[in-house]
Amino acid sequence: MQRPDPARPRFRRLPHWLSGAALALAVAAVAILGGSSLFVRHYTDRLAQSGEGTLRLAVAAIGGELGRFERLPPLIADRSLIRQALADPTPARLAETNAYLAAVNGPLGTTDIYLMRPDGLTIAASNHASPNPFTGQNFAFRPYFTEAMQGRTGRFFGLGTTSLRRGYYFASPVHDGGRITGAVAIKVDVEGLERAWDGADYEVTVTDPEGIVFLSSRGDWLFGAFGPLTAETLRAGRETRRYANAVLHALPVTQGQDRDGHALMTTTDGRATHRYLVLSAPMAELGWTVRVLLDLAPVRAQAASATLILMLISCLFALFVAVMLERRRRLGDRIRLQAEAQAALEGKVAERTSELAAVNAALGAEVAERRAAEEKLRLAQRRLVQSGKLAALGQMSATLSHELSQPIGAVRNFAENAGTYIDRGRIPEARENVGRIVALADRMTEIGRSLRSFARQPGEKLVATDAAEAVREALAVLRWRLDRAGIAVSEATGTGPAPVMAGPVRLQQVLVNLLSNAADSLEAAATPAPALAITLERGAGRVLIRVADNGPGVEPAMEERIFDPFFTTKGKGLGLGLSISYNIVRDFGGELRLLTRRAGACFEIELAAAPADGAVPAGEDGTREGAPEREDANGGAQDPARR
Ligand code: ADP
User: Can you tell me the distance from the alpha carbon of 270 to that of 119, in angstroms, rounded to the nearest whole number?
Assistant: First the structure.
């Protein structure tokens, strides 16, 4: 995971709005500097294009106007009246010629028409009746007269010496009999041309070959020169008296060129300065130059407006770019923050995951350990069960031989006695003994069956069993042995049955075991005057059976262990008798305990009393158990005698 390095200082970048503003300023500056000159050039070009048209129109107008008049002098000169007036200038003829010229002057639109002799003297004129008629005046100094007299069409522009009005002069020779006898001249007023230029948003000037302005939309430029006035120019003017007495002067202008080769002109008229784009065209046959001057102020205004618009658009664009950059930056910041948050989250998840993995691994190890321990335990259990089974098998064998040896001994005695009785012819006693033998055989069968049930069978049905009878039967089983050992037995079972909830055979087995142990103890210790006492005590809902002896008793250190399986102090014992007896009594819902005594041992069986219905029910042992008990008691009395 990538974390921000706290040691590294974080420099704040320039804010985007500031960058945007700087960009806008830069773009605006570029727009002003570059755009302005570009726009100026563009609009100048457009002005030049429109000016070209204007110039062509002006040239065409001037050419058309003058061309129209150029053809008139030859036509007039060709008339016979004109020739005759020159050949024979009688007053009548001159009068007629004057009248003719005056008559055609108006309709032709000319200012004056007049006829000159070869020496230049005017002999007839359309204005012969005016206060300052041309007649009698000599115009030999005018170039148009000279040219006409040389046989060419004379042309001239100038200020009328009489009228002091500007005009254009055409002259043609008068041919008569192969000779040039004179010249016809017309004067055309040019002020009409200027009037056509009034009100236009451009200026038009026409200059003569010497560069003098003689036609202009601006009156103050008339007779001015765009270039310097040379001595040559002034002399030529004086000779032809072209401009009569008008004062020629240099105009206050400066001429130049722009980068695209456009001719420029700056004029200063004292109050203001004007800059013009100058377009010019020559009129070759006249020697004139027509100029159209277009004011550049609108161009500058247009360029300024366009520059302003470009600047605004640039600023808007820069603003847009700045906004977009800002948005991008914010988006980038957001994405970065999200990535950091995600990385942090992933880090935490990884941390937790590794912790969990460690815990998991520990748990896994623990589980494995537990499993191994369980496996060991199971193995140990299996071994224990195996050894337990083997021990139980041994115990079972020992118990079986132990339990059967006593009745077998009794059977042997009864059989020997029966033989003796038969020998002596005492058949009834012999029969009685045989009956006891049968009963003992039955008992042994029963013992064998019960041995199978030595293993605990908690589910076995309990029945009301007479405890007093069980005591008597147990004593009957052991009678011969007790008698042989010389053990005095006292039995205090009270009167009447003592019904308890038990299994009759197993209760008897418990009693037989307790009595056998007592006998074992008395015999082993060779107790003098060995004695056994069996008591039966009926309590509230319970019955207590005690088996006591006057033997050595149980050492206090062993008291707690005698009920443990396999605990024995006897060399031949298995240590299972008390353990099995304890569990049998527990199965009856009773208790088997060792009572503390000063001398000897006393075991107490506590059993729940069966419901006192007065009858001893037929238990699992059946009624046959009653006969051996009684006979055992009798037979037992005979055993000591046999031994
Ligand atoms: P076993 O008779 O095979 O030894 P038991 O479980 O019947 O096994 O008896 C366990 C032990 O209890 C005996 O070895 C003995 O030491 C002791 N014990 C039992 N009954 C008496 C008794 N009446 N007097 C003294 N000790 C006894």
Answer: 48
Per-residue exposure over 461-494, b if at least 16 CB sit within 10 Å of its own CB, e if not: ebbbbbbbbbbbbbbbbbbbbbbebebebeeebe
Residue 18 CB neighbour total at 10 angstroms: 11
Confidence of residue 430 (pLDDT cuts 50, 70, 90): very high
Task: Name the pairing type of β-strands 288-295 and 202-207.
Answer: antiparallel
| Pairwise CA distance, residues 235 & 241, whole Å | 10
**Residue position matching structure tokens 């089974």:** 389
Residue of higher predicted confidence among 407 and 295? 295
The pLDDT-based confidence of 34 (bands split at 50, 70, 90) is confident
> Which letter does DSSP use for residue 32 in this model?
I
Minimal-distance CA residue to ligand 1 atom 23? 518
458, pLDDT greater than 60: no
Pocket perturbation via mutation, ligand 1, pick of 550, 558, 568, 592 by most ligand atoms within 8 A of CB: 568
Q: Which amino acid would we find at residue 215?
A: L
Whether 601 lines ligand 1, by a CB cut-off of 6 Å, is: yes
Positive or negative, the Cα torsion across 437, 441, 447, 448?
positive
Query: Any idea which residue has 């008291």 for tokens?
Result: 559
* Cα separation, 445 vs 83, whole angstroms: 199
Strand partners, 138: 121
Q: Which atom of ligand 1 is nearest to the CA of 578?
A: 6
Q: Which CB contacts under 8 angstroms, 24+ apart, belong to 328-333?
A: 329/16
Separation CA 345–CA 234 (nearest Å): 101
- Residue 351, judged by CB atoms within 10 A of its CB (0-12, 13-18, 19+), counts as exposed
d(CA 261, CA 270): 28
Please compute Rg for the chain using Cα positions: 84
The residue among 491, 508, 512 whose CA lies nearest residue 500 is: 508
Continuous segment of H or E residues that includes residue 183:
strand 179-189
User: Which of 234, 186, 151, 233 is closest to 75 using CA atoms?
Assistant: 186
Helix or strand (DSSP H, E) at 313: helix 297-423
Residue 304, SS3 per DSSP: helix
List, in sequence order, every residue forming a beta bridge with 64; answer none if it has no partner. none
Q: Which two tokens stand for residue 551?
A: 């033997």
Q: Confidence class of residue 634 from pLDDT cuts 50, 70 and 90?
A: very low
* Predicted pLDDT of residue 523: 93
Is the Cβ atom of 602 under 6 angstroms away from ligand 1?
no
Nearest-CA residue for ligand 1 atom 11 is 568
CA distances from 543 to 126, 460, 533 (A): 189, 21, 16
User: 627 near 439, Cβ under 8 Å?
Assistant: yes
What is the strand order of the sheet 288-295 is part of? 213-216, 202-207, 288-295, 273-283, 263-268, 253-257
Q: How confident is the model at residue 526 (pLDDT cuts 50, 70, 90)?
A: very high
Using a 6 Å cutoff on CB, does residue 74 contact ligand 1? no
pTM above 0.70, yes or no: no
Averaged pLDDT score across all residues of the chain = 83
**Residue, of 2 and 340, whose pLDDT is higher:** 340
State residue 120 phi and psi, 5-degree precision. Answer: 100, -5
pLDDT in tens, 160-182: 777 778 888 999 999 998 899 99
Report whether residue 573 contacts ligand 1, using a CB cutoff of 6 Å: yes
Report the distance separating Cα 340 and Cα 334, nearest Å: 10
* Interval 554-580 mean pLDDT: 82
Residue at token pair 């401009």: 243
